Amino acid sequence: MKRKLDENDVPSPEPAANNSTTQSSFESFGLDPRLVQAIAKSQFSTPTPVQARTIPLALEGKDILAKSKTGSGKTAAYVLPTLQAILRRKATAPKQKITSTLVLVPTRELADQVYRAYTSFAAFCSKEVQILNLTQRVSDAVLNAVLQDSPDIIVSTPARVSQYLNSARLSLDAISHLVIDEADIVLSYGYEDDINAIAKVIPRGVQTFLISATLTPEVDELKALFCREAEIVKIDDQEEKGEGVTQYVVRCGEDDKFLLIFVVFKLQLVKGKSLIFIDGVDRSYRLKLYLEQFGIKSCVLNAELPVNSRLHVVQEFNKGLYDILIAADDQEVLGGVLKRRSSKAVQDEEHQISDEDDEDNQKPSRKKKVANRDKDYGVSRGIDFQNVACVINFDLPHTSKSYTHRIGRTARAGKAGMALSFVIPKELYGKNRHTTISSSKHDERVLEKIIARQAKKGNEVKPYHFDMTQVDAFRYRMNDALRAVTKVAVHEARAREIKQELIKSEKLRKHFEDNPDDLRHLRHDGEHGGLIRHQAHLKHVPDYLMPAQGRKGLSADEVGFVGFKKVDGKDKRKDHKRRGKTARKGRGMGKPKGRIDPLKSFSAKKKH
């Protein structure tokens, strides 16, 4: 094809493609060399689609509404442009101290995560850029001192910002960049009044970033409140086709969930780290204690623990200290809910399958949106779980949208991932009363919506059929383990973790120093509280129970036959069956021959 000539008879350059995803590297954005160096240190090779399209627009100073799925790199899409703007301003006015960037997030955990992202990308310009996490657990005196020094970037929840604005300890007069992360749920966390208060003091002309995983009426409200002709960056699933999740669904009875979860982990059918979503904190601890019976370690993300403790659990999971993390969404583990929902709203959620699954038809009123907010946003949104190989929906979420956010925890940054969901068919609901939960009554209806939603995106939810004849041999072990995990054991496990956090609490350290008896009582309860009846034999899988294909994923030292005698011949075990027969015989026919009184025969002399 011939190219057009300009007025000097020189071929004019071909127009650049209108798709910014052609950017092949971060260097092409014209970022500060210190930022490029930090990007390389963070092992970011090439921009993700949302970064490739958002960063150039942001550097031009335009307002941006970016919609992309969880794990697509949205945080870096606004962190890098805001840091670039600060470094550019510092180059012209190095001594000027103003707070120019405000980042609003719905939860403390997400605030900590964003703060660490800023710290990471500002690693080579840390002297020029000061960042403050306003939600961190430090004294007000420390925060006030830092605020007086006008940090360049403030990361916070809307409530915390509103609190400091009301007390005149924070000024937003010089703000030039406003970021609202997780914009589609920030209002649903009860921050509407705080957002309105912030909007009144934000100066005109502020560059605004609205970052979201979905486009909802909440996002439209924020757009009308803060944006001026915002550029919409909407990343379709086709552009992220390399980040696919293989999805499976298993139809089974309630008891079979516990049987199959044991088989999956004990026979190592899943390799790598797993994130298990479950309905309720009590149920989370029950599953944890159940898996411990088989020697399978896991950790629970418990909403009752302090924020720092929950962050510590996530960090331990990300570091690989635990391969299994159990999360209860319905308790909103992330916290940040400032307005407690009414009991009627909670009851409605338990018995209603929301119609909010269809985004195109989602136009509920403001009050209805708050009352019917998805319970599962807690863990499935915001927190950065790293290198998750498999997401297991032990209990199916209440909506297909929640399912989408849950499985977004895996298959991130181009890596492969798998989602496995347990579904209770109608005919099996309520068959096992001691393990049945009310929410599973609607599993089939929710599954239909999930399949339809994924089909629109070109994804398939495949049925997975376990050969139950090969795993039924493990059923008696499952029953033994479940019987050992009593309600008392579950409650004591929850109480023990809270007591341990009390012992470690900085605020209580002075109290314990003055009242050592209180500390002694807490430790006594933690050490001597009988949590569960441990059954060592359940940790081993005998050869005769192994399925034909079950040994492939196991090493030789992980499975072994549980013998009745020790290898060294010094078996101290009693034959309870034989002893029982002897006792019964003795009761019917007098003292058995050869019976010896152990007290009379005991000798302290050393045998040679």
State the main characteristics:
608 residues, alpha/beta, Rossmann fold, 2 domains, seven-stranded parallel beta sheet, disordered N terminus
The largest sheet is: 7 strands, parallel
Q: Output the CATH class name of the largest domain.
A: Alpha Beta
- What is the second-level CATH architecture of the largest domain? 3-Layer(aba) Sandwich
- The CATH homologous superfamily name of the largest domain equals P-loop containing nucleotide triphosphate hydrolases
Look at the helices and sheets and give the structural class: alpha/beta
Q: Total number of β-strand segments?
A: 14
CATH topology grouping of the largest domain: Rossmann fold
Q: In one word, what is the shape?
A: globular
Number of domains: 2
Uncertain runs:
1-5, 10-23, 238-242, 330-378, 524-530, 554-574
Query: What gyration radius follows from the Cα positions, in whole Å?
Result: 29 Å
What is the terminal separation in angstroms?
Answer: 103 Å
Mean pLDDT: 76
- Percent range for helical residues? 40-55%
**Share of β-strand residues:** 5-15%
Instruction: Count up the helices.
Output: 24
Organism: Exophiala bonariae
Keywords: ATP-binding, Helicase, Hydrolase, Nucleotide-binding, Nucleus, Ribosome biogenesis, RNA-binding
GO molecular function: ATP binding; hydrolase activity; RNA binding; RNA helicase activity
Family: Belongs to the DEAD box helicase family. DDX56/DBP9 subfamily.
